[in-house]
Amino acid sequence: MTKAPIFLRPEFKERIWGGTALRDQFGYDIPSDKTGECWAISAHPHGPNVVASGPYEGKTLAELWKNHRELFGGVEGDRFPLLTKILDANQDLSVQVHPDDAYAREHENGELGKTECWYIIDCQEDAELVYGHMARTKSEFVTMVNSGDWDGLLRKIKIKPGDFYYVPSGTIHALCEGTLVLETQQSSDTTYRVYDYDRTDQNGEKRELHLTQAIDVTTVPHVDGHANQSTEIRQGITIKTLVKAEYFSVYHWNVDGLAELTQTAPFLLCSVIEGEAKLIQGDTTFSIQKGTNFILPAEANDFKLEGKCELIVSHI
C-alpha cells in the first residue's frame, strides 16, 4: 500500500531576535511579534510537531517514530534524527557554536551534536552572516574571545537569497539582521553562546554565555563546511543537490509543470518555501503551498508534483 504524506502543524518559538516574517511571508499564526523560529518538522522534546490530518491526526511525530517505525523504513535509533526550522532573524542572533555527537553525549545528557545547514529564503539587501573565525591557534582564539576582539575574530560574509551554507559542528556562526532561513539540522537543541552583543532581555538581564564549552568544541583554525553541489534538470522539475553529508542530504526542488518522482529514501522531509502545487499519489491529490511541511514516508513510491513551487527536501 502506498503510504500518504504526513502533514505537520508547525511549532513556534519566541526569541529576543525574532520578528513577524513567519506571519508576513508564510501566513503562519504566530504567537507574537517576536517569533523567531518555526519548528516545521520536529520530534525533539522541546517542540514536537503534531500530525495535522489523516489516520495519525493528533499524534506527535515523536509518537510515530516510536510506534510506527515502518513509516520511516525501519531506520534504527532512539530518536528522530533530523529537525527542519524556518528562522526569522529580525535582529542579529548570538554568535554561537554547537558540539559534535561525542561531546554532547558526554556533557549534555545524551543529546545529539548539532551539524546544520542554511538555505537563505530571503534577506535584506546588505545582509550578512557570521561564518567562521580568523584565529589560527586555540590560544589565539581564547585571547581574542577574552579580550572581546570580535571585529578581529569573526568572519562575516555577504549573503543573498538562494545562497546555501553547510555548518558542521564546531563552526562559529550567526545569522544576522534581516535574514529568513530554512535550516536543516540534527535533532538537537544544544547551543553554546560565544557573544551576544551585550544586549539585555525584558528584565534587563544579559543572556548566559557558554565560553568554556565553546572553547572546547570550536574548530581551530576554521574550516569551511564543504557542500558538493550539483543540478539535475528533468521534465517539470530542477533538482539542485545542496549538500550530501554525514547526517543529511539536502535538495532544492524547483517545480514548474508536471514532475514524476519516486521516493527511494527511508523518508523525505519536505517544506514548501514558495508557490503552490498538487501532490498526486495514485488517485489521491493533496494541495501543498508555501508554508506546508510534510514527510513522505517509506513506500510512498511513485508520486507527481504539478504546479509552480519550490521545496527544500532532505533525508538521512
Mean pLDDT: 96
Share in helix: 10-25%
**Treating each run of at least 4 consecutive H or I residues as one helix, how many helices?**
6
- Class based on secondary structure composition and strand pairing: mainly beta
The string of secondary-structure elements, in order, is EEHEEHEEHEEHHEEEEEHEEEEEEE
Distance between the termini: 23 Å
Low-confidence parts = none
- Under CATH at level 1, the class of the largest domain stands as Mainly Beta
Shape: globular
What percentage of the residues does DSSP assign to strands (E)? Answer: 35-45%
Keywords: Isomerase, Metal-binding, Zinc
InterPro entries: Carb_Metab_Reg_Kinase/Isom, Man6P_Isoase-1, Man6P_isomerase_Firm_short, MPI_cupin_dom, PMI_typeI_cat, RmlC-like_jellyroll, RmlC_Cupin_sf
Cofactor: Zn(2+)
Pfam families: MPI_cupin_dom, PMI_typeI_cat
Describe this structure in words.
By secondary structure, this protein is mainly beta. It folds into two domains: 6-217, Jelly Rolls; 230-315, Jelly Rolls (Sandwich). The chain is 12% helix and 43% strand. It contains six helices and 20 strands. The strands form four sheets. Strands 1, 4, 14, 15, 16, 17, 18, 19 and 20 form a nine-stranded antiparallel beta sheet that branches. β17 (268-281) and β18 form a beta hairpin. The model has no long low-confidence stretch (mean pLDDT 96). Keywords: Isomerase, Metal-binding, Zinc. This is Mannose-6-phosphate isomerase.
